[in-house]
Amino acid sequence: MDTRSLPDESLLYQTDLAAVRPLLDVAFACLTVGACIALAATGWLTEFAFELSVFAIVLGVVAWSSARLDDRRTIVAAFVVACLVRIAVVLLSHAVLPGGVWLQNDDFFYDSAGLALAQAPWSSLFDIERLEALAQSFQFGYPLFVGIVYKFVGQQRLMVELTQAMIGAAAAPVAYWLASELYDTPTIARRVLWLSALFPFDVAWVMFLLKDTVLLLVFTLATACLVTALKRRSVRWLVPLFLLYSILYRFRAWALGIHGCAMILGLLALIAAWIWPRGGWRRWLAFLVMVTSAGVAIVLLVDPPKLEFWLLDVLLSKYEEIQNGVNTLGNLDAFEPLALSLSTAAIAEHAKFAVIYFLSPFWWASASLPVWYTFYLGELLIWFLFPFSVIGYWSSLREGRPLWVLVGGILLIDLAVVVNISLGNYRERTMIDTLFVVYASFGWEHRRGHKWMILGTYVAQMLVILIQVSTGKA
User: Fold this and answer.
1) Cα 12-13-14 angle, rounded to 5 deg
2) Which of 185, 272, 297, 450 yields a CA-CA distance of 20 to 30 A from 310?
3) Hey, what long-range contacts does 409-415 have (CB within 8 A, 24 or more apart)?
4) How far apart are CA 143 and CA 150, in angstroms?
5) Which residues does 49 contact at the CB level (< 8 Å), separation at least 6?
6) Considering only CA atoms, which of 76, 342, 328 is closest in space to residue 197?
7) Which helix (H) or strand (E) element contains residue 147?
8) Does the global pTM surpass 0.85?
9) Contacts for 448-453 with beta carbons within 8 Å, 24 or more apart?
10) Which runs of E-coded beta strand occur in 110-215?
């Protein structure tokens, strides 16, 4: 039988589809009109149009920026999935708690400041002094964000959360960009993309009226832009970088200090590489000597007498501070070191922020939560990824490349600052979720030969849980 005479099934399918295509178009148009009528009848047409516009803009930016990449479809798909998951979390939170989750502190301030900005004329939104006065702070970034949403749709917290859900989802493509600039392995970037899209804490955080979702995107964008500018040695990246820095300054000013200190570390690593081009321990020794000298010089320039007190505190290690695990860096005006402690209570307190809760959306309330929160899905993911992140961090740094030293410095400095602030007032969160995921993805590629280190880390983490439970810190 001559099979060549048989019709091609794909052609038949295309013919059938072409025949019903007009009917599908009419049905889609009717559904669209019906949905608009229903939204208008219920009073949600303006809100729907606003959120749809935000989604279209962000999706357009993501699609345009990834147009020349082989993984464009994957990037767009990850962004859409991240959007849907975050939107579902926001809607679920409002279904369970009508009006949303109120923490009765910062979120109330952002709501009132955003309303004040929304009620002001449009011209005042371009007046820096007016913005600072209405937001009661020079860091008016998030109140301005809330105020703009309120201007379009009224004082509706749900709309703010849906908007920041879409903006927060854009952090996943940015994470892909950062990973692809740091590493040449495409699988690492793809793994970072999906982990960032579905990272539990970043997903959960969108249901709060807090700045951290938008801040994470801006900080990650600035980090990726800085890495790209240095790697490609391109001046044209400085314009968007300084724009991002100006935005970052209005959200969290001291974040610029983290990038600044990391740049110093990268510069010192570059000098060490010039001194010892072959690498090895001599390069690291030269780097550490320069870092120590630079640190002492900065302290002397800031306030020489305080260096003496700082050294005395290190040497004497006040007994009461050691026993209580007091974080003397909680007061940033007092330039004193973190008081370390060997007591189980202090170990549990430090470990809680340094290992377990440093990415958690609910850590400030952890003292009143039951033990089962330790095994929350997001915590379990951090438990699992933590040893791989350490492996990736060490594998990236051991060669002493200046660019990787700079990125590693961003993670370490931000984590150190946030841990110390959080131990003092329980009101801070890191901005390095993406870097944590990047290093974990890189560490997964280099997990061979580290089996005992990984198992030992898991055992140590379980000991931390037991210490927390025994001391009531879980």
Assistant:
1) 90
2) 272
3) 409/261, 409/262, 409/265, 409/266, 410/223, 410/258, 410/259, 410/262, 410/435, 411/435, 411/436, 411/439, 413/258, 413/261, 413/262, 414/255, 414/258, 415/354, 415/358
4) 10
5) none
6) 76
7) helix 141-153
8) no
9) 450/387, 450/391, 453/387, 453/390, 453/391
10) none
> What whole-number distance in Å separates Cα of residue 465 and Cα of residue 375?
10
- The candidate with the shortest Cα–Cα distance to 439, out of 473, 472, 419, 410, is 410
Q: How far is CA 434 from CA 70, 193, 359, 378, in A?
A: 22, 9, 11, 14
Query: Nearest to residue 361, comparing CAs of 168, 189, 178?
Result: 168
Structure tokens at 106: 């910062």
Give the Å distances, CA to CA, from 384 to 439, 446, 458, 463.
13, 15, 8, 15
Answer yes or no: are the C-beta atoms of 102 and 108 closer than 8 Å: yes
Do the Cβ atoms of 339 and 328 come closer than 8 Å? yes
Using the structure block, give the residue that is written with the tokens 């959960």: 204
Give CA 92 to chain center in angstroms: 22
- Compute the C-alpha angle 387/171/221, nearest 5°: 100
In terms of residues, how long is the chain?
Answer: 474
Q: Can you read off the two tokens belonging to residue 223?
A: 């980090």
Torsion of CA 139, 142, 145, 150, to 10 degrees: -110
